[in-house]
Amino acid sequence: MQSLSLIQQLAVSILPILFAITIPAGAQAFMADYLGDRTAYMTGRRTFSPLAHIDPIGSIALPLLGVAMGGFIIGWPKSLQLNPGAMRKPRSALAKVALVTPLANLAMALLWAGVAAASGYLTVYFGEPLQLMALIGIKVNVALMIFTLIPLPPLPGGVIVQALLPARAAWQFSKVERYSFWILLLLMFSGVLGKVLLPLVQAITLLLASVAL
Predict the structure, then answer these.
(1) How does the average pLDDT of the chain come out, rounded?
(2) N or C terminus of the chain with fewer C-beta within 10 Å?
(3) Where does residue 104 rank: exposed (0-12), middle (13-18), buried (19+ CB within 10 A)?
(4) Rounded to an integer, what distance in angstroms lies between the CA atom of residue 156 and that of residue 98?
């Protein structure tokens, strides 16, 4: 997006980023409700409307700052309250709730690929900005899908691993959560996270973009 002004970059980025961060929260809420936990419904979170899941800092300020600085985009939705005790088979239920996050990002990446393909049938005036928005949507969703699968609690990948472990091992693994934030910071600023994840993000993004275009 080097040829675009900062305002143009933010304009084409805000919707893909906002959807990529908030829609998985709605998917989690629907899954939790389906599994017997009505908390999300009672708190107004069982919806795909981004307005119900926006965290001013995590869903808007930090992601747009990442776009403006041309660096790594970090974001999160408003915290979703869950009551595992109300779910059938709580451990496996939490894993299912966690799994819908990367699946939702994958679904959105595919939808944006469809939008990119459809943009070719529009006039240049509408088609070019829509295509750029779609390519951003693909990349952001692929990046978040892979990032959330990192096996560190409370990330979905960590929750899934915890559910697959025997009870005692899962309890020991859960202790890692208190250090997860610092581990992620270390991985990010040391460059390890980028070296491991970036080639994967680029490969999947290129595949979807080449199919769409």
Answers:
(1) 89
(2) C
(3) buried
(4) 5
pTM for the predicted model, two decimal places: 0.90
Number of CB atoms found within 10 A of residue 190's CB: 10
Q: Where are the alpha helices (DSSP H) in the chain?
A: 6-34, 39-42, 62-69, 90-119, 124-148, 156-164, 167-174, 177-189, 192-212
Scan for tokens 């009672």, then name that residue: 42
Residue 72 is predicted with a pLDDT of: 65
Can you tell me which residue has the tokens 């973009």?
209
Residues in the chain: 213
Sole residue written with tokens 């080449």: 210
User: For the purposes of burial, counting CB atoms within 10 Å of the CB of 51, is it exposed (0-12), middle (13-18) or buried (19 or more)?
Assistant: exposed
Closest by CA position to 141, among listed 101, 99, 188, 187: 101
Question: What SS3 class is residue 139?
Answer: helix
Average pLDDT over residues 33-42: 94
d(CA 194, CA 26): 28
Question: How many other CB atoms sit within 10 Å of the CB of residue 80?
Answer: 17
